[in-house]
Design goal:
Largest sheet: 8 strands, antiparallel, barrel
Strand order of the largest sheet: 6-7-8-11-12-14-15-16
Distance between the termini: 5 Å
Strand content: 25-35%
Number of strands: 19
Radius of gyration: 22 Å
Helix content: 10-25%
Number of helices: 7
Length: 436
């Protein structure tokens, strides 16, 4: 009989922390300068992002943007050729709140939007504990400015334990290394955009990428059981002219083909817009935000989104290239879909009590409704809120870069050789799994 030891350590990812409320202080809201063809951002945006507003309690709230925020007047300008971007950095918010200043990062409390329309025990809105839906067991706490980001809390818990990061590659640093290297990616396309601060009608598309067509000569990890290359930030960025593979599953098979452009995606929004330099798009329910690690040592992760929205600051650089700054993707996820995402990286019953604890966390921390943003305090909550910050740089993809990617499967054997194989038998201690 073969014994696998890491399961006991894995339980510490979630143990003794499921019901702890967050605390915190106010944040910088990202009010910065946007440049449009070399011209400074005008006074329309001087007050900061347009979704930040005070509520009836006098609290500043990062409300979720909607289609109702569309500008009523367009700036004059000719439509640009479609702009392609690849995410170059994400922030899950796993850095502890008391270490964000020294690390230059931000905590989960400062990421995302108010997805449920109420403020619930936010540190920046004291004394207000409104509820958008019913969680009979606990009252999840909002982040600052009433942000909803329950899975951000999990990121902080995971960051405090070495198991998910070291054995599954589930970490902000691992994922950012692969985004930097081009091992996997998320590709965004903005079409029909006039290149100005206000455009009431643009098209947005999002695609899963299995990485660059031609990878650099360095690795983030040589294999899943080897340490992360700590020098990865010093390696050069991928070039904007480098081509990215596009997963065929992301492409709308009914979309009209236009030259060498990547066809429209199934995760597209033909009614997106740009206001004060920020684009806004809605993401259709059931579409994935997928860091597809089929060609990397780490497996990545797949979030199945509902009520998803994305915003980002479109900034034109002096060399005429474009970047996205101050990006946010926010959505809610069903507990079953979140559990399935862990199962897709091999975190299943083979992890014994740790799997049950993760499942309990997903089911107990529900703080939103999956089907509506309406306030219904008597209806049981059925989803967890998510907020992810990101940056993106201009990238290249054409129709010839569309490839067939592997579909996710439930409960493959974990990639790390020391982790328990599927089908092992959990022992009475709940922390040992034996394989014949």
């Amino acid at each position: 009989m073969k014994m696998h030891w890491p399961v006991a350590v894995a339980i510490s990812i979630f143990a003794c922390s499921v019901f702890k409320p967050p605390v915190g202080i106010a944040r910088d809201d990202g009010r910065g300068e946007v440049k449009d063809a070399g011209l400074a951002r005008d006074a329309r945006a001087s007050e900061g992002p347009w979704w930040i507003a005070s509520d009836e309690h006098g609290c500043e709230r990062a409300r979720a943007p909607t289609s109702q925020d569309r500008p009523t007047v367009d700036d004059v300008g000719n439509d640009l050729s479609p702009l392609y971007f690849a995410m170059s950095k994400i922030v899950l918010g796993g850095t502890p709140d008391d270490k964000t200043a020294s690390s230059g990062s931000i905590n989960w409390r400062d990421i995302g939007f108010d997805m449920d329309g109420v403020c619930t025990n936010s540190a920046s809105c004291p004394g207000v504990s409104d509820k958008a839906c019913l969680n009979a067991a606990i009252t999840p706490f909002d982040g600052r400015d009433c942000r909803d980001n329950e899975l951000g809390k999990l990121s902080e818990l995971a960051a405090a334990s070495p198991v998910l990061a070291e054995l599954f590659g589930y970490s902000e640093e691992d994922w950012n290394c692969e985004l930097h290297r081009g091992g996997f990616g998320v590709i965004l396309k903005i079409s029909n955009y006039n290149g100005k601060l206000d455009d009431s009608s643009v098209r947005f598309d999002m695609y899963t990428s299995t990485g660059l067509q031609l990878l650099p000569g360095w690795n983030c990890r040589d294999s899943i059981d080897k340490p992360l290359n700590q020098d990865w930030p010093s390696y050069a960025d991928w070039l904007s002219s480098a081509h990215w593979r596009i997963a065929e599953q992301s492409v709308d098979t009914s979309a009209v083909r236009l030259g060498d452009q990547v066809p429209n995606s199934v995760a597209g929004d033909g009614t997106a817009f740009v206001r004060d330099g920020y684009f806004f798009a809605k993401i259709p329910d059931g579409q994935p935000l997928w860091f597809d690690g089929e060609k990397t040592p780490i497996p990545g992760f797949r979030f199945l989104m509902r009520r998803g929205v994305m915003v980002g600051q479109l900034v034109r650089q002096p060399d005429d290239s474009w970047v996205i700054r101050d990006g946010t993707v926010a959505f809610v996820v069903l507990p079953a879909d979140h559990v399935a995402a862990f199962q897709q990286i091999g975190f299943c019953e083979n992890m014994c009590n740790a799997f049950g604890t993760m499942k309990q966390y997903a089911e107990s921390q529900v703080d939103t409704l999956s089907g509506t943003d309406q306030i219904q305090p008597a209806i049981p909550c059925d989803a967890l809120s998510v907020g992810i910050a990101f940056e993106a740089r201009q990238a290249t993809a054409t129709t010839s870069d569309v490839v067939v990617a592997s579909d996710p499967v439930l409960c493959p054997d974990p990639r790390h050789p020391s982790l328990p194989r599927q089908g092992c038998t959990c022992q009475a201690d709940g922390a040992t799994c034996l394989t014949p």
